[in-house]
Specification:
heterodimer; A: alpha/beta; four-stranded antiparallel β-sheet; 13 strands; about 40% helix; globular; B: alpha+beta
């Protein structure tokens, strides 16, 4: 039985996760039996839906050490990032019009910043160190008297590195600058306790943590109170910060997913780390590979690795049967490789050669072993095809070659 | 991305992989592309000096599946052709044969450029093989903006 006949092995948990079957079961009643609108105050259908929404809000708040009243439901982390950045910038523009973020942020932050620039805000995009982490000194140097907000992701989606959010937050708090954190990739992987963590706004997603797609939340701190301007107007739901009928079943799903994350986190991360290390050990038997991003300051489930002299998309093609992501952007119109890997200072050819593996709750050791075997065979075959590998083996430094760049 | 059956076939069973001895006077090499752009093709042709016919061809390619397929196909197509006939192979024909999607057209352009580069290299060392005035190698170049 060949792999291609069965379902591919899923090693792309950083892209999205399956909805945990326990989450599915929790959601189902709210599609038909308890279909009420949580905003309906006049009958039992509405009351049941509202109760479910509030229980879910508690579960989400508990995972991150927040008060349920600090949770605003959104459609996902992209919307949360938009609401946090545009909402805070527009509300506080009287105090200043400068914002700071990292070059390695998710597009949902970077593109929102670009939009704010078009509105007249000024944005500083900080470089990161070669290990993917931002230097606190560089961040301090970028903050000015007119800086109103700094946005730093907790965990990078491509390389999985964990930024030092407590240290950055403590310094920004002392300077009275708002701090937004995109935690879409962090929930259930990094312990977050907002009762002590000095963060003002935090974006959350359900579908990276075994919940459904299409639901997320924005944490908005109450003490000290953080003010933002609503971006979606209507019925005044969510304390006026985000209007729109609440999708009860989605919210229940996110709540149950976060409840499970809190319960399982400690044991699950240990198991996942062992699998990731097994994957790493297997892949490091291949010559000329390099791990991208800091390996210690990194979530347990991520491995971003470059197989130099092999182009990423051809590698993916040879690894059919294994679902992963590539840092090569050969399918994009620009043909440019991952901007995150470029920001680490990786050369284009190394960035083009990178694969992101991310393991998760349902990954098995047998799947990891099968992936290692498949990757090893494919890399070996493609290097046999690669003129760059020949040149490397002949001792030619590719950086010294005059390429006909196009 | 869904690949055509022909791309998959060339990717899984590439034809004429490898190289010839570069010291052989009948051998010419065309190397096009750049690692920064994600594809480099090396095409070698062995030309019969008496007839001017390409008797054999080999390739090595760093690049996506479509780039590998384009160069593999080209090694099949140039064999048995004269230099002049080989130069008539157009990227559009390569793209059509492999059913390349628009975003992969640059792979077929690169393969055409590899033929031109190999022929130019041969003519450089064999001025009598004609077309010596055509010294330029890379004509059309696909869009790529490395190091931005």
């Amino acid at each position: 039985m060949s792999l291609s006949r069965s379902k591919p092995i899923y090693l792309d948990y950083a892209a999205t996760t399956p909805v945990d079957p326990r989450v599915v079961q929790a959601m189902l009643p709210y599609l038909y039996d308890q279909f009420g609108n949580p905003a309906s105050r006049s009958h039992a259908y509405g009351w049941a839906a509202e109760e479910a929404v509030e229980i879910a809000r508690e579960h989400v708040a508990q995972l991150i050490g927040a008060d349920p009243r600090e949770i605003v439901w959104t459609s996902g982390a992209t919307e949360s990032n938009n609401l946090a950045l545009k909402g805070a910038a527009r509300f506080h523009q009287g105090k200043g019009r400068h914002l700071v973020t990292l070059k390695t942020e998710h597009k949902a932050v970077l593109d929102t910043m670009r939009e704010l620039e078009r509105e007249g805000f000024e944005v500083t995009y900080l470089d990161v160190l070669p290990n993917g982490l931002v230097s606190l000194d560089a961040l301090k140097a970028a903050v000015r008297p007119d800086t109103i907000l700094v946005s730093v992701m907790y965990v990078n989606n491509e390389i999985g590195v964990i930024q030092d959010i407590p240290a950055i937050g403590a310094w920004l708090r002392s300077r009275g600058v708002l701090f937004h954190v995109d935690a879409a990739q962090a929930t259930g992987k990094v312990a977050i306790d907002l009762s002590t963590l000095p963060v003002d706004l935090m974006s959350l997603s359900a579908h990276k943590t075994y919940g459904p797609k299409g639901i997320g939340a924005l944490y908005v701190r109450r003490r000290p109170r953080v003010r933002i301007e609503a971006q979606i107007h209507g019925g005044g739901h969510e304390r006026g910060m985000r209007s729109g009928t609440l999708p009860t079943h989605q919210i229940v799903g996110m709540g149950e997913a976060y409840r499970l994350a809190r319960e399982l986190m400690a044991t699950e991360n240990e198991r996942i780390r062992a699998l990731r290390d097994r994957l790493l050990a297997g892949l490091q038997r291949i010559p000329e590979v390099q791990v991208n991003g800091d390996l210690a300051q990194r979530v347990a489930h991520n491995l971003n690795i470059s197989f130099t002299f092999v182009e990423g998309e051809s590698l993916l093609m040879g690894m059919k049967g294994i679902a992963v992501s590539s840092g090569s952007a050969c399918t994009s119109a620009s043909l440019e490789p991952s901007y995150v890997l470029r920001a680490l200072g990786l050369s284009d050819e190394v960035a083009h050669s990178s694969i992101r593996f991310s393991v998760g709750r349902f990954t098995t050791a047998a799947e990891v072993d099968a992936a290692v075997e498949k990757v090893t065979a494919t890399v070996s075959r493609l290097r046999e095809l690669s003129p760059l590998w020949d040149m490397h083996c002949a001792g030619i430094d590719l950086a010294t070659v005059q390429w006909a760049e196009h | 991305m869904a690949y055509s059956d022909k791309v998959i076939d060339h990717y899984e069973n590439p034809r004429n992989v490898g190289g010839f001895d570069g010291a052989d006077g009948d051998v010419a090499t065309g190397m096009v592309g750049a690692p920064a752009c994600g594809d480099v093709m090396k095409l070698q042709i062995k030309v019969n000096a008496a007839t001017g016919v390409i008797e054999d061809a080999r390739f090595k390619t760093y690049g996506c599946g479509s780039a590998i397929a384009s160069s593999s196909l080209v090694t099949e197509w140039v064999k048995g052709k004269t230099l002049e006939q080989a130069l008539q192979i157009k990227n559009t024909a390569i793209a059509e044969e492999l059913a390349l999607p628009p975003v992969k057209i640059h792979c077929s352009i690169l393969a055409e450029d590899a033929i031109k580069a190999a022929v130019a290299d041969y003519r450089l060392h064999h001025p009598s093989a004609g077309g010596a005035g055509e010294g330029g190698v890379l004509v059309e170049q696909p869009a790529c903006t490395p190091a931005g």
